[in-house]
Design brief:
The structure holds 2 protein chains of 2 kinds.
Chain A (H helix, E strand, L loop, with lengths): L7 H19 L3 E4 L4 H14 L8 E4 L6 H14 L3 E4 L2 H5 L8 H20 L4 E3 L16 E4 L27 E4 L7 H11 L10 E8 L2 E4 L14 E6 L12 E2 L5 H10 L17 H8 L3
Parallel strand pairs in A: 1-2, 1-4, 2-3, 4-6
Antiparallel strand pairs in A: 5-6, 7-8, 7-9, 9-10
Helix pairs in contact in A: 1-2, 2-6, 6-7
Chain B lengths: L9 H10 L1 E8 L6 H11 L5 H14 L9 H4 L3 H6 L6 E6 L3 E7 L7 H9 L3 E7 L6 H12 L4 E7 L8 H15 L6 E6 L23 H7 L12 E11 L2 E7 L4 E3 L3 E4 L5 E8 L7 E3 L3 E6 L10 E3 L6 E12 L10 E6 L2 E14 L6 E2 L9 E14 L10 E6 L5 E10 L7 H4 L4 H8 L4 E6 L6 H14 L4 E5 H4 L11 H20 L3 E5 L5 H10 L5 E7 L2 H7 L4 H6 L21 E4 L5 H14 L5
Parallel strand pairs in B: 1-3, 1-4, 4-5, 5-6, 22-24, 22-25, 23-24, 25-26
Antiparallel strand pairs in B: 2-3, 7-8, 7-14, 8-13, 9-12, 10-11, 10-14, 11-13, 15-19, 15-21, 16-17, 16-20, 17-18, 17-19, 20-21
Helix pairs in contact in B: 6-7, 12-18, 14-15
């Protein structure tokens, strides 16, 4: 399948475009999950390429936990406007009413209610039959076994033992009413590929990826940025201005920063080569319990 | 050996990364052959593990490890919780690593029998297969199966990794006899390149560095072979093929065909032909968001604009006029069965090849192949994980190449139309032409075949409801939509039946029953012809509707209750009939002086006071699609 005439990134790009087009052609009501991070930015860029000169024939969906960094929300709205795309935003209002938040409810419950449940609500509300996600197989062990087209039951459950075999680039897109498919066009990309592509294509990303002095408190060895007044400080806890950046983006109270001076793309990529810590480590939700990602995925998490 | 550090010139480093070639390979072996350990060691030794992964690994090794407290590399790749508990790999996992020379994607495939389909999955996108053998156990039945499946899926490069060589005291005899046995078996499988290497995945012998323990072995180490093996498939030099995925039409001035060039190359001004229709045109533009291209080669995802208004849609294959694919509705193929429900000849499946989907039946199962001995066995069906050699007939002709010439245009999957499972994976051998083939004549003309030609399953859509409820309005819309989808339909309603076939009948209960009987018999004939029949009759009595249902095969009769309250119908009164009935000018009028027995369990209930007719008609079309009557 390899060809001497296409560079590595061009090959990955073409593979992803192929997948995105298959979804547009075979599903009635697809949606692209847009999480505002670098992987989403790359996926969106690929969707723009896939249908050019047409626009992508599906909307973007952001599941807003209400705890995202403010810069993420600003970037999200600017991006949708710049590209002229239809952006849908869904918040689990019931969770908001119940007062679920990452501090008092704990990261596990917060993620379950505001992210996983909210996502299911949104998929049901608009009756989407396919949803793109930016997950990569190199991110986490249970992701490595994920299909490109991953079948979900009417209750959004994933059964890792009963996945459809996936051969060549022939994808089985058949589903019954209420069932859906999660599609991962970046399956075969690595973190390095993503950064190289961002650099090569000049894809805009949220400024939080670049090092800057930010108000930080350290809790259990994790650097948390105080993004707004909702973060309650413990006695004697005061935010320090520290030079940090983020390798992944999520809810600000659950996203660890790393100390860094990398304030350019080149700096980030250089830092990556020498990094000895994988990117998901910055996410507090992964270490909650053993095999937690697989468990969350079975329950409907992306 | 490969610690990535950037000293200064980042751009140069990135250019090197870009320029690296990619090798996709799969590893297969039996349980405990050490596949996961081997891959784990490659990741570990190529220093691609991050610190947090390593500390998690050390922790896990103590808890679940099978290596007595040493680092258990297998835990790195056995991703799913269930697997970690059982200590076996149950599904294909994809791993990524890179060395200075190459980038790799590894498909880690399970070895035990019930998961043969997973190995085929991994092999379908791989160029090279690593077959692991335990030096103590030698060539097992599974080893033969793995070699055969690799060969079946078109893999030409094989590495025989004789693992756990430390456990046979690094003995050359043991290695040589395993290689001899494997070579004897694999000789007929068409591998162009077979390399055998003695290794110890656990201790690292000959994995990356040559081992001092095997001075008798002079070949390459495992990794150096993977880094240097030449797998160029020369896809770009093969005939041009581009299956059309999507017709790109942003406005009236632009009409392009989006797809991936799966083989060959295409340039501006090239003549192209649409494989099935044979219509030719010239390439006007090759469009991408980064600007128009002069040439696109295999692997590129592009949008092609043609000079003329040629009819092209999803599923068509654009190709070069001097080297066309075969176009046929009959071909011979190998099929690997991948689902619990056995393969039944003459049963209809959905066949997907490239971007085209057609209905297909296995017209003949010639034999199945014992994947352990390669013997041909007579068979009536194929079970999960069995391989058969079959003739397949499709409802419409498809364009294809033999699989050994082109993996993209020669491969297909079969989908079970009821469970939607990916039931079979197929590799086309050659086309069967009607003139030279006897199997076509073996098919008798029946309802199944008539409907297969039309690409649909026949059905009776029986619309029942009060006069003025909206039956005919909705039925007409459904028929228009089906017609728009290229489906074959016929409408039976009062207008074309009462005035002809049933001219002699009035409106007494007896005549109403006879009226319905004749309509039901007529719709049965249309069903035999493979049509989707729409019947729009008040049909007030349950027993007559049941009679109509029982005339056709189970599942073919779809009762659609157009549920509109009598008051609303009377208000609408489109033909002024209710007014006349109430004035006593019409007798036996349903709802006024003759009863309407509403369906108790209609297949579809349409409430016209809640939704517009067009939406209701869409629901009916959706229903047909979901049940597999139409695609």
């Amino acid at each position: 399948m390899s060809d001497p005439h296409l560079s590595h990134l061009k090959r990955l790009e073409a593979e992803s475009i192929h997948i995105i087009r298959e979804v547009a052609a075979e599903f009635r009501n697809p949606v692209m999950l847009y999480s505002i991070g670098k992987d989403s930015s790359v996926m969106l860029h690929l969707a723009m390429k896939a249908f050019y000169p047409s626009k992508p024939p599906f909307p973007l969906l952001h599941v807003d936990t209400t705890w995202k960094f403010r810069e993420m929300i600003q970037f999200r709205d600017e991006t949708a406007k710049r590209l002229g795309l239809n952006l849908l935003v869904h918040i689990n209002e019931e969770g908001v009413k119940r007062g679920v938040n990452p501090f008092d409810s704990g990261s596990s419950l917060h993620t379950q209610v505001m992210k996983t449940e909210a996502l299911k609500q949104a998929l049901d509300k608009w009756a989407f039959d396919a949803a793109f996600g930016g997950a990569r197989r190199d991110e986490e062990k249970s992701r490595a076994k994920e299909r490109v087209f991953s079948f979900r039951t009417a209750t959004h459950a994933w059964d890792p033992k009963n996945q459809r075999p996936e051969l060549w680039r022939v994808y089985n897109t058949r589903i019954n009413k209420g069932e859906s498919i999660r599609v991962f066009p970046l399956s075969n990309w690595t973190e390095l590929d993503v950064w190289q592509y961002v650099m090569k294509e000049g894809i805009p990303i949220v400024p939080l990826y670049f090092a800057k002095k930010r108000p930080i408190v350290e809790r259990d060895g994790t650097l948390i940025m105080v993004d707004d007044g909702r973060m309650k400080l413990a006695n004697g806890e005061t935010p320090d201005m520290r030079m940090v950046r983020f390798r992944t983006l999520g809810c600000y109270p659950l996203t660890g920063a790393i100390e860094s001076d990398a304030d350019t793309l080149e700096g980030i990529v250089t830092e990556m080569f020498t990094a000895r810590t994988s990117e998901r480590q910055g996410r507090l939700i992964d270490t909650d319990e053993k095999a937690s990602m697989e468990k969350k995925k079975r329950e409907g998490y992306f | 050996m490969n610690d990535i550090t950037v000293h200064g010139d980042l751009a140069k480093f990135l250019a090197e990364q870009e320029g690296k070639s990619l090798l996709r390979f799969l590893t297969c072996g039996s349980v405990d052959d050490g596949k996961s350990t081997l891959i784990g060691r490659l990741l570990y030794d190529s220093k691609l593990l991050f610190d947090d992964h390593l500390s998690a690994l050390e922790k896990d090794s103590k808890k679940h490890g099978t290596t007595g407290g040493d680092i258990d590399f297998a835990l790195l790749v056995d991703g799913l919780e269930a697997e970690r508990e059982q200590g076996i790999t149950i599904d294909v996992a994809y791993r990524f690593f890179a060395t200075e020379k190459r980038r790799f994607i590894v498909a880690d495939c399970p070895g035990h029998e019930q998961y043969t389909r997973n190995m085929a999955t991994g092999a379908s996108n791989s160029e090279l297969a690593v077959i692991l053998v335990d030096a103590r156990k030698g060539v097992l039945i599974q080893t033969r199966r793995h070699a055969y499946i690799a060969s079946l899926l078109g893999i030409h490069h094989v590495v025989l990794a004789v693992n756990k060589i430390d456990l046979v005291d690094f003995a050359q005899d043991a290695f040589d006899s395993i290689v001899a046995e494997f070579t004897a078996f694999a000789g007929g499988l068409g591998f162009t390149n077979l390399v055998a290497i003695p290794i110890s995945a656990r201790f690292g012998d000959n994995v990356i560095e040559p081992s001092p323990n095997t001075p008798w072995y002079r070949g390459p180490t495992f990794l150096s072979h993977l880094e240097t093996v030449d797998v160029e498939s020369a896809l770009a030099e093969k005939p041009f093929r581009m299956p059309v995925q999507w017709v790109n039409r942003p406005n009236l001035d632009f009409r392009g065909f989006s797809g991936t060039v799966v083989s060959g190359r295409v340039r501006k001004r090239d003549r192209l032909v649409v494989a099935k229709s044979g219509r030719e045109s010239t390439v006007k533009r090759i469009v991408t968001m980064d600007g128009d291209l002069d040439e696109a080669v295999a692997g590129a995802a592009v949008t092609v604009v043609l000079d003329d208004e040629v009819d092209v849609s999803r599923g068509d294959v654009l190709c070069e006029p001097t080297a066309r694919p075969e176009v046929s509705e009959q071909f011979a193929a190998h099929v690997l069965w991948m689902t619990d429900d056995e393969m039944l000849p003459s049963r209809q499946y959905l066949l997907k090849i490239g971007t085209a989907s057609v209905l297909a039946t296995v017209s003949e199962l010639k034999h199945k192949i014992d994947v352990n001995t390669l013997d041909h066995l007579a068979a009536k069906t194929l079970q999960l994980n069995e391989v058969g050699y079959v003739n397949i007939s499709t409802a419409q002709p498809i364009a294809f190449d033999p699989y050994h010439e082109n993996r993209d245009t020669g491969a297909f999957i079969l989908i079970d139309r009821f469970t939607n499972a990916t039931a079979g994976a197929g590799m086309i051998d050659f086309g069967l032409r009607r003139a030279t083939n006897v199997h076509w004549q073996a098919l008798t003309l029946n309802k199944r075949l008539r409907s297969a030609i039309k690409g649909q399953r026949p059905a009776v859509l029986w619309f029942t409801g009060l006069s003025g409820s909206g039956k005919s309005t909705i039925a007409n819309l459904v028929e228009q939509k089906l017609c728009g989808l290229g489906r074959h339909t016929y409408m039976l309603d009062g207008d074309n039946v009462r005035h002809g076939l049933n001219r002699d009948l009035g409106f007494t209960d007896a005549d109403r029953v006879e009226n319905i009987r004749r309509v039901a018999e007529a719709s049965k004939l249309f069903v035999e012809a493979g049509e989707i029949v729409l019947v729009s009759f008040i049909s007030p009595f349950r027993s007559e509707r049941r009679m109509a249902r029982e005339l056709v095969e189970q599942g073919e009769f779809i009762e659609i209750f157009v549920d509109t309250p009598l008051e609303v119908c009377m208000q609408r009164d489109p033909k002024g009939l209710y007014e006349k009935a109430r004035a006593g000018e019409i007798l036996n009028f349903t709802g006024i002086d003759s009863p309407y027995e509403a369906p108790e369990l209609a297949d579809i209930t349409l409430r016209t006071v809640e939704s517009a007719p067009d939406q209701l008609a869409l629901r009916v079309v959706e229903y047909l699609r979901e049940r597999g009557f139409i695609l």
